[in-house]
Each structure stands twice: as C-alpha cells, then as structure tokens.
Amino acid sequence: MSWLVTGGAGYIGAHIVRALADAGLNSVVIDDLSSGHASFVPDGVPFVQGSILDGELVERTLREHEVVGVIHLAGFKYAGVSVQRPLHTYAQNVEGTRVLLAAMQAAEVANLVFSSSAAVYGTPDVPLVTEDLPKRPASPYGESKLIGEWIIRDQAIATAASAHALRYTALRYFNVVGSGDPSVYDSSPHNLFPLVFEALLAGNTPRINGDDYDTPDGTNVRDYVHVADIAAAHVAAAQRLLANRPIEPAYNLGSQNGLSVREIMNAMARVTGIDFTPDIAPRRPGDPDRIVATGELAARDLDWKNRYTVDEMVRTGWEARRAATPGR
C-alpha cells in the first residue's frame, strides 16, 4: 500500500514524501518536473515522471502501486504570474484536479488530502483568518485552488453512497519556508526566502516592498510556517483519513501571530552573518497590511503547531540553499 504524492519532486512535496517515510508509510511520486527536481525524490521511492493531466498514466500509477490515498500538490503555484497566464493556471490546477479525481474513481482510491492555499481568501479585512471567512480570491491561482476545493467537494457528494466514497480534506496555508532536509530547498523565483538568499549569495542587497504599512514596524505581516510542519500536517491528515476518523473539509495551517518582513530581514542578517540594510522599494499594489490565519482546528485534529522559531526557519533554509551550491 502506498500514498501517491502528486508534485512530490517539488519543495513541499519532497518534504511530505520524507514525512510519510518517517511515519512508516510508503509513497510513490508523480511529477512533470516543471518546477520540481528529480534529485529531491529520496532513493527507493518510486518516481513517475509525467503530468497529472495524463489520466491514463495517473490511473496506471494508482493501480500498479496499490495506492490507498493521494496527497495532491501538483499544479501551477505562482499567484502573480497566474494573472498573465490564467488559461495555463486553470489547465494545470482545475483540469489537473478533475483528471486526478476521475483516475481515483476508476482505480477505486477514496482518500484525498488536497494541498490548497490561503490565496482562496484573497485580501481579507480581518486580522485573523478563520476557515469560514468568505472566499474572495484575488488571482487566477487563488480562484483555481477554490474551484479545486469545489470539485473535490462535489465528487465527495456524488460518491457518498458508493462503495468507495471519496473522503478528503483541504489544507490552506500561506508562506512556507525553511528546510527539513539539507538536500531539499525552495527554488521558487518568487518567494521571499529564496529571493533574499539569492541576493545575498550574489552580493546584492535584499529589498522590502513598502515600509509604511499599519503595522508595528511599518512592513507587512504574513504567516510564515516551516515546511517540516506543513509536511507533518499533510501526513496527519492522511493518517486520519486512513483511520476513517472524522475530518473537516478544510483546515488553515496558520501561525496565529505572523512575522513582519523586517523581522524576516533582521533574522536573515543575524543567522547568515551578512550584515545588510534592506533597500526600500515602493509598495506592491493590493498588498494588505496583515494577513495571518488561526490554526485552531488543525491543532485540534492534526497536531498542528509551529515548532520552529524565525531563526530556525532562516537557518534551515539557508543551509539547504548553500548545500545546493558548494563553496558558497
């Protein structure tokens, strides 16, 4: 028996594969390597290179590896770029999820953990985001994740009376950082941590987009959560589904308090030993002062908690990034 991890060669997916192994669960990875790395898949874990849009490939993988559940991460994850590439975003995230669900139904696989996003909330005007907050996604990426949740919900309703009724949950989270394994790092060209790391490695000065927000230090506040904690929550959700225990349709994996961009920059200088004063750039349009989610439901059901300090988030991410380029 195995769990299929779609997008398992990516930064978050590769951590989930390792967390499954730590929990004594087998996994198989499918990934088209559009943003993942084959080297991130641990030795001994079956790796199928291909797209979740290939229904025959997905169904064959489910059957051949005796898959009992799917942890679904594969998709196009760049919210800003999705505005310029909406059709690509919907094809990967919406059609990809539909194809996956059809393959699961054909192969009689009935457990699904959907890696969703806090982007489904858009830019809420409340200080603390809860799961029942109205959904107002502000990008095609956020919309595609919300549609994915709807499709999964509808399939669960449609199969409720069948012998293989779909059971699922969606995990929503904001900024994933750090590393739980020195061989796996965040290679995204859009996320704050890798942007700062790349600037420091190149001898450049990182920048802050706006320092006049209505926050204690003037920079916007966001949820930053360690990738190992995110991976652990996905595995806990998978185990809960496998045990047929009650589970919510969605959970926020939030920090409750958040961190400001300046706090992140200070930690970067402190941990790396590279003293710098970040450049201040103009605000990005539409950036709210503060978006932080509560993780109370996930703490109750999935043992969710923040186990890492900001310095540990930076240290583990920095060590993994430097390990990818020896000598730097």
Automatic annotation (TrEMBL):
<comment type="pathway">
    <text>Carbohydrate metabolism; galactose metabolism.</text>
</comment>
<dbReference type="InterPro" id="IPR036291">
    <property type="entry name" value="NAD(P)-bd_dom_sf"/>
</dbReference>
<dbReference type="InterPro" id="IPR001509">
    <property type="entry name" value="Epimerase_deHydtase"/>
</dbReference>
<comment type="similarity">
    <text>Belongs to the NAD(P)-dependent epimerase/dehydratase family.</text>
</comment>
<dbReference type="GO" id="GO:0003978">
    <property type="term" value="F:UDP-glucose 4-epimerase activity"/>
</dbReference>
<keyword id="KW-0520">NAD</keyword>
<protein>
    <recommendedName>
        <fullName>UDP-glucose 4-epimerase</fullName>
        <ecNumber>5.1.3.2</ecNumber>
    </recommendedName>
</protein>
<keyword id="KW-0119">Carbohydrate metabolism</keyword>
<dbReference type="Pfam" id="PF01370">
    <property type="entry name" value="Epimerase"/>
</dbReference>
<feature type="domain" description="NAD-dependent epimerase/dehydratase">
    <location>
        <begin position="3"/>
        <end position="254"/>
    </location>
</feature>
<dbReference type="InterPro" id="IPR005886">
    <property type="entry name" value="UDP_G4E"/>
</dbReference>
<keyword id="KW-0413">Isomerase</keyword>
<dbReference type="GO" id="GO:0033499">
    <property type="term" value="P:galactose catabolic process via UDP-galactose, Leloir pathway"/>
</dbReference>
